[in-house]
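Following up on my earlier thread - several people asked me to post the actual chain instead of describing it. Fair enough. Here it is, all 287 residues.
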Amino acid sequence: MVRTIPTNRAVFVHAKIVHAMAGTVDIETAQGTSVLLPGMSLALGSGRWCRIKPQPRVRLWTVYIEEDLLRRCMARFFPDPDRVRAGLHPRDWDGRPIVMSPGLPVLHRVEPIWRQLSVLRDGDLPPEVVAVRSIELFARWVGIVLPTFVTSEHMAEESSFRTPIEGRLTDSSAIGQIGKATRLLREHMEQPWTASGLARAVALSRSQLTRLFVIRTGIAPMRFLTEVRLTEFTRLIEETDLSVALAARKVGWRDARVASSWFSRRYGATPSQYRTKPHPHCANHVG
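Reply from S.P.:
Thanks for posting it. Predicted structure:
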């Protein structure tokens, strides 16, 4: 999500983990205000209110997860509580806000995993496949952020093992080109992009672009563009009074029905329904 104005206080039935990707944000909870800078995260248990106040603009990834599932998975990943930093083991967490600092490079590595998680339910995959894939991606996510949870002495202990990788395997120029491609899509999402046109803009073949893009972001270029457009379209629906049609055009969808379809697949309601129905918990927690 991208936020430019504060939200109301709201309670969610799921636990949530908020990651700051760009900009600064104040997150108010019953325990006080936490300031997140880029590279920082906040975990909050289910049934607890929070309010987001961007300073002045922030890009966030927020993951919502059933709290019992989160606790059971984390307990399996960290079977020895003594190896985990104080307060971070599920046995020690009471649901109050926890602020962590994985670092922006780590969050950038995890972002393709979140993106793959976010699109799992957009297709026609059987529920069993969705469940298995979700756990697989979640395990990969935890594997990347291990240093945030495991004490430094134990991480040093693990790092003493030899690995077969002794140098960089990726092509730095290709990474730069894919970085340029993602920036073009983010900064000019209103343009009528095609995979071929994007490939020409970054001097790659279409097949090279697609292959490297999937490696870097987790999805193909045009699917990434859809996610970028959906993120900004959602912000416009949330934070402005623009018509659905105009909001759709601003992000590059000429047909408002396309925008509404993607919005409905992600949130289970049309943009118009979303606007006319306040969050069910807001009224009880404002003020």
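The chain has two domains: 2-151, 172-276. That should answer part of your original question.
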